Structure formats: structure tokens, C-alpha cells
Amino acid sequence: MKRLTFLILLLLTLHTTCAQTKHITRIGLINPDTGSLGNALNLVKKGYLHADSIVIVGLLHKTQKATINATRTYLQNNELTNVKLFVVQGDISLDSLFVENACTREFREIFEKTDAIIRFGGDDIAPKIYGEETFLTTEPVHKGHNWEISFLYHLLGGFQNPAYKPFLEEKPDYLVLGICLGMQELNIATGGSMYQDIPFQIYEKTTYENILKENPANIHKNYWDRVDNENEYSHIQFHPIKITKRSFLDFNRISKEPVVASVHHQAVKKIGKGFSIVATSMDGKVVEALQHTRYKNVYGIQFHTDFSVLYNDDITFKISPTETLTLSDDTHLFHKLFWEDFSGRLK
Fold it and tell me: Which of 79, 207, 273, 314 would be 190's cystine partner, CB 3.0–4.6 Å?
């Protein structure tokens, strides 16, 4: 009887010890709306994005009142206890993005209380931030989003002030992933610039009809829903990309030119401090991926691996009046391996 009691106590002790040592991974999600938050939770639910125990920290600014209220309602309605919100309170202006400012203390708090940062897609960065006039086709994000440019600068530094010591000097393995707008913000935060309109500035096209005559591999957004509003087409453009060998996208189990999902009209032009190009469009004119040369866990992709629809079985996409697409096994594997690589970096 004493032996049985001892064994029970030992098992309870081991269980409690394991529970206490289970690592909680905190992933900061910059400016999540209900759509991007749903995409992140879907990746966790399906096991693509995985760790011992994941807590998502939604990072927003106090000026984003509508998004904050909508997100809180979403969390309450879905009883999501593994998602927390951090609302940045400091005031920030365009001329204080690349210096220590009223948000610096809060930026450091975020950095110290998270293990990784993800920024998904969104509208366009205000060109004034990188010193250019604004194209008629540019749709800048709300001013409440400008804080994130400053936050990424605090993490990485940039050409704006070579003497500045970025936060990542203290923790070089900290993980930062930018997707679409997220990659563009990484580039601008470190002193880079943008092509504000791919069809016009890169391919010299001024109408949707003309850009649709281009090689589909050179189109980065499906414009069929703009020229034919009587039908419903996928807004996603699927196209191959060219990957640099031994980069973070060089998965040896997939084709050399995997197919990716794009929904964007802007592209990186001047490359920000510390980044190198590791993937391009097939013609080499559009940057598809960047990786930091000093901080190996800081990288960005121009295409989307976050859309939940990409992980639905047997789904088809109506691309044009004559084309319907089903994703290949190779494409599914590429997306799975992308998040497998990200999850491995969390460890």
C-alpha cells in the first residue's frame, strides 16, 4: 500500500513538473483584424504553425478604435483565451518614426514579452515615409498603422541612423516574419523604398486589360474581377517564383519554381539595410522574398502563405473566363514546409 501511494505521488509530481516546464510561445501579431487573426488561428488549429503552447498577442495602436472593438468582440464571441491584446498608447508622428519616441518604452516591452512577430498583409505604406510623392493608385493605410514602421525600425535599425543600436543586437535569434505588406514594412523600416504600382512602373501598363495580356507569371493580382464585374473571380493570382539556392525558401522536397498566391500591386525597389533578395518573379523584375543578413530569423515574403483558403482540401479557384485552378500537391507541400520552417525557428 505504501509503495502504491509513493508511485501515485511520484506520477503527480512528474505531471506537475512537466506542466510547469511547458514552454509558452508568445507570437506578436501586428495590427490583426478579424480576418488575419482568423488566418493565424487556422494555421495553429491545423497544425501548420505549432509549438508547445502558443499565445497570440495582437498588437494595435490606440487610434485604431474600430479594429480594437471589433477584435475584442471577436475574441469574446469565440471564447479565445489564447489571444491577448496589447494596445500601444504613445503618440507618434511621421517625423519621429526613426528615432526614439513616445512609443519606444512600449516597443521594448513588446520585444521582451514576445518570442516572435508576424505582420500579415494590408493596404499601402504612405509614400511620404520613404520620401516619394503619392501615386493615384496608392491606397495608404490608416495613420494608426504608422507606429509599426517605427517598431520594426527599433527592432532592426536602418539607413536612417547607422549609429542606432537595434533591439535585436540583444537577442539576434528573435523571429520576425513579414508577409506582403509586412515584407514591405520591413524594407521601409530599414531605409528602403517601393514601386507604388507594378503594372505601370515595371511593365508600363496603364489599364487592367493591358496588364492581363502579360505573361501570367508577371501578374501579381488577378484583375479579372475589375474588368468583368458580372462574374466572380478569385482575387488571388497564382504564379511561380524563382528561389535563391540555400535560402530559407529552398525546400528540397518541392519543385524549383513553386507556385505562390499573390494579391498586391506594389513591390520593393531600393533594398533596406541588412536585407538581401532571396526570391524574385520569373523575369527577375519583382522581389518576392527578403532575408536579413545579420539576423537570420528576420525575413519576408511578398506572396501569401497565410490565407486559410489555401489549406482547404479540393478547393478550386476561378481565375478567368476560361481557367479554373486546383492547387497541386507540390503547392500544398510548399505551404506546409514554409510553416514547418517557421515553427522550427520558434524553438
Answer: 273
pLDDT at residue 1 tops 80: no
Residues in contact with 330: Cβ distance below 8 Å, sequence separation at least 6, in sequence order: 254, 255, 258, 259
Which residues have CB under 8 Å from 296's CB, separation 6+? 173
Query: Using CA atoms, how far apart are residues 30 and 32, in angstroms rounded to an integer?
Result: 6
Residues 260/346, Cβ–Cβ less than 8 Å: no
Instruction: Record the cell numbers describing residue 334, joined without a space.
Output: 510548399
Show Cβ contacts of residue 216 under 8 Å, excluding neighbours closer than 6 positions.
237, 239
In this structure, the number of other CB atoms found within 10 A of the CB of residue 143 comes to: 14
Indicate the DSSP class of residue 217: G
Q: Which residues contact 280 (CB under 8 A, 6 or more apart)?
A: 241, 242, 286, 287, 288
CA of 84: how far to CAs of 26, 72, 87, 115, 302, in Å?
10, 9, 10, 14, 27
Q: 261, 238 in Cβ contact below 8 A?
A: yes
SS3 annotation, 75-94: HHHCCCCCEEEEEECCCCCH
DSSP per-residue letters across 324-343: EEE--HHHHHHHHHHHHHHH
d(CA 296, CA 176): 9
Question: Is the pTM here over 0.90, yes or no?
Answer: yes
Q: How many CB atoms lie within 10 A of CB 136?
A: 8
CA dihedral 298, 304, 307, 313 (to 10 degrees): -110
Say how far apart CA 39 and CA 309 lie, in whole Å.
9
| CB-neighbour burial class of residue 212 (10 A; exposed 0-12, middle 13-18, buried 19+) | middle
Q: CB count, 10 Å around CB of 127?
A: 18
Q: What is the pLDDT of residues 80-109, one digit of tens each?
A: 999 999 999 999 999 999 999 999 999 999
pLDDT at position 11 over 50: no
